[in-house]
Specification:
Blueprint lengths: L18 E5 L8 E4 L2 E10 L9 E8 L5 E7 L3 E5 L1 E11 L4 E5 L5 E6 L4 H11 L4 E8 L2 E9 L3
Antiparallel strand pairs: 1-6, 2-3, 3-4, 4-5, 7-8, 7-10, 8-9, 10-11
Protein backbone atom coordinates (compact mmCIF):
# COMPACT_ATOMS: atom_id res chain seq x y z
CA UNK A 1 0.00 0.00 0.00
CA UNK A 2 1.39 3.43 -0.86
CA UNK A 3 0.68 6.69 0.81
CA UNK A 4 1.54 8.64 3.91
CA UNK A 5 -0.39 11.15 5.92
CA UNK A 6 1.39 13.80 3.80
CA UNK A 7 -0.27 12.52 0.62
CA UNK A 8 -2.75 14.86 -0.96
CA UNK A 9 -5.80 13.39 -2.68
CA UNK A 10 -6.40 16.70 -4.44
CA UNK A 11 -2.86 16.51 -5.84
CA UNK A 12 -1.41 17.60 -9.16
CA UNK A 13 -4.46 17.62 -11.42
CA UNK A 14 -7.15 18.80 -9.03
CA UNK A 15 -8.65 21.27 -11.50
CA UNK A 16 -9.06 18.67 -14.23
CA UNK A 17 -12.16 18.76 -16.39
CA UNK A 18 -15.12 16.77 -15.10
CA UNK A 19 -14.12 17.12 -11.44
CA UNK A 20 -15.74 19.10 -8.65
CA UNK A 21 -14.74 19.96 -5.06
CA UNK A 22 -16.44 18.24 -2.13
CA UNK A 23 -15.87 18.42 1.64
CA UNK A 24 -13.72 15.52 2.82
CA UNK A 25 -16.34 14.80 5.49
CA UNK A 26 -18.92 14.05 2.76
CA UNK A 27 -16.83 11.29 1.13
CA UNK A 28 -18.36 7.84 1.63
CA UNK A 29 -17.44 4.25 0.84
CA UNK A 30 -18.25 3.52 -2.81
CA UNK A 31 -17.71 7.15 -3.85
CA UNK A 32 -14.86 8.52 -5.95
CA UNK A 33 -11.99 10.92 -5.30
CA UNK A 34 -8.95 12.21 -7.18
CA UNK A 35 -5.62 10.97 -5.82
CA UNK A 36 -2.57 12.71 -7.31
CA UNK A 37 -4.40 13.32 -10.58
CA UNK A 38 -5.89 9.80 -10.81
CA UNK A 39 -9.53 8.73 -10.26
CA UNK A 40 -9.93 6.33 -7.35
CA UNK A 41 -12.86 4.50 -5.74
CA UNK A 42 -13.19 4.83 -1.97
CA UNK A 43 -13.19 1.45 -0.23
CA UNK A 44 -13.05 2.65 3.38
CA UNK A 45 -13.42 5.82 5.42
CA UNK A 46 -12.72 6.20 9.13
CA UNK A 47 -13.19 9.39 11.10
CA UNK A 48 -11.56 10.43 14.34
CA UNK A 49 -13.18 12.70 16.88
CA UNK A 50 -12.21 16.32 17.22
CA UNK A 51 -9.37 16.55 19.70
CA UNK A 52 -7.71 19.36 21.58
CA UNK A 53 -5.73 20.26 18.47
CA UNK A 54 -8.64 21.07 16.20
CA UNK A 55 -10.27 19.40 13.21
CA UNK A 56 -11.88 16.00 12.95
CA UNK A 57 -9.69 13.86 10.65
CA UNK A 58 -10.76 11.33 8.03
CA UNK A 59 -8.68 8.39 6.95
CA UNK A 60 -9.53 7.49 3.35
CA UNK A 61 -8.51 4.28 1.60
CA UNK A 62 -9.12 4.15 -2.15
CA UNK A 63 -8.23 2.05 -5.20
CA UNK A 64 -7.32 3.57 -8.59
CA UNK A 65 -10.19 2.64 -10.91
CA UNK A 66 -7.90 1.91 -13.87
CA UNK A 67 -4.72 0.31 -12.47
CA UNK A 68 -6.02 -0.90 -9.07
CA UNK A 69 -3.23 0.74 -7.03
CA UNK A 70 -4.28 1.15 -3.40
CA UNK A 71 -3.91 4.54 -1.69
CA UNK A 72 -4.43 5.84 1.82
CA UNK A 73 -4.39 9.32 3.34
CA UNK A 74 -5.54 11.27 6.37
CA UNK A 75 -7.23 14.64 5.76
CA UNK A 76 -9.13 17.17 7.92
CA UNK A 77 -12.84 16.55 7.31
CA UNK A 78 -13.49 20.27 6.80
CA UNK A 79 -11.08 20.52 3.84
CA UNK A 80 -12.12 20.12 0.21
CA UNK A 81 -11.25 17.15 -1.99
CA UNK A 82 -11.62 16.79 -5.75
CA UNK A 83 -14.24 14.29 -6.94
CA UNK A 84 -14.22 13.04 -10.56
CA UNK A 85 -17.29 12.41 -12.68
CA UNK A 86 -17.24 8.71 -13.56
CA UNK A 87 -19.30 7.41 -16.48
CA UNK A 88 -19.94 3.83 -17.52
CA UNK A 89 -20.95 2.82 -21.03
CA UNK A 90 -21.80 -0.46 -22.73
CA UNK A 91 -20.98 -1.26 -26.36
CA UNK A 92 -21.48 -4.23 -28.65
CA UNK A 93 -18.20 -5.66 -29.93
CA UNK A 94 -18.20 -5.71 -33.75
CA UNK A 95 -14.54 -6.47 -34.56
CA UNK A 96 -11.06 -6.79 -33.06
CA UNK A 97 -7.98 -5.59 -34.94
CA UNK A 98 -4.59 -7.30 -34.86
CA UNK A 99 -3.13 -4.31 -33.01
CA UNK A 100 -5.70 -4.67 -30.20
CA UNK A 101 -8.29 -2.01 -31.03
CA UNK A 102 -12.00 -2.77 -30.76
CA UNK A 103 -14.71 -1.77 -33.22
CA UNK A 104 -17.67 -1.02 -30.99
CA UNK A 105 -21.29 -0.21 -31.80
CA UNK A 106 -22.96 2.41 -29.64
CA UNK A 107 -26.64 2.26 -28.70
CA UNK A 108 -27.45 4.81 -31.44
CA UNK A 109 -25.86 2.57 -34.11
CA UNK A 110 -22.69 4.60 -34.63
CA UNK A 111 -19.27 2.92 -34.49
CA UNK A 112 -16.20 3.88 -32.47
CA UNK A 113 -12.75 2.37 -32.91
CA UNK A 114 -10.57 4.19 -30.38
CA UNK A 115 -10.68 1.81 -27.39
CA UNK A 116 -7.95 -0.76 -27.01
CA UNK A 117 -8.60 -4.28 -25.73
CA UNK A 118 -7.30 -4.42 -22.13
CA UNK A 119 -4.20 -6.45 -21.32
CA UNK A 120 -4.39 -9.47 -19.06
CA UNK A 121 -7.18 -11.90 -18.25
CA UNK A 122 -10.10 -9.69 -19.32
CA UNK A 123 -8.57 -8.97 -22.73
CA UNK A 124 -7.67 -12.63 -23.26
CA UNK A 125 -11.20 -13.76 -22.32
CA UNK A 126 -12.80 -11.19 -24.66
CA UNK A 127 -10.57 -12.29 -27.55
CA UNK A 128 -11.33 -15.98 -26.91
CA UNK A 129 -15.10 -15.39 -26.76
CA UNK A 130 -14.96 -13.23 -29.91
CA UNK A 131 -12.99 -15.91 -31.79
CA UNK A 132 -15.70 -18.40 -30.75
CA UNK A 133 -18.19 -16.09 -32.53
CA UNK A 134 -19.98 -15.01 -29.36
CA UNK A 135 -21.85 -11.70 -29.39
CA UNK A 136 -20.33 -9.62 -26.59
CA UNK A 137 -21.26 -6.45 -24.74
CA UNK A 138 -18.21 -4.60 -23.38
CA UNK A 139 -18.48 -2.21 -20.44
CA UNK A 140 -16.12 0.74 -20.21
CA UNK A 141 -15.42 3.27 -17.46
CA UNK A 142 -14.49 6.85 -18.26
CA UNK A 143 -13.07 9.44 -15.86
CA UNK A 144 -10.77 12.45 -16.19
CA UNK A 145 -10.14 11.94 -19.89
CA UNK A 146 -9.24 8.26 -19.50
CA UNK A 147 -11.42 5.39 -20.69
CA UNK A 148 -10.85 1.66 -20.38
CA UNK A 149 -12.80 -1.53 -21.02
CA UNK A 150 -13.39 -3.04 -17.59
CA UNK A 151 -15.68 -6.05 -18.14
CA UNK A 152 -17.83 -7.89 -20.64
CA UNK A 153 -20.78 -10.21 -20.87
CA UNK A 154 -22.26 -12.42 -23.54
CA UNK A 155 -25.33 -10.96 -25.22
CA UNK A 156 -28.44 -13.10 -24.97
CA UNK A 157 -29.73 -14.42 -28.29
Amino acid sequence: MSGDSDDDFVGGDANADNCYPSPVGDIKKGGYIVYKGRPAKVIETLSSKTGKHGHEKMRITAIDIFNENKYETIQPSSHKISVPEVDRSEYQLIDLTDDGFCSLMLSNGSIREDLRLPDGDIGDAIRKQYENEKILLLSSTKAMGLEQIMSFRQMQD
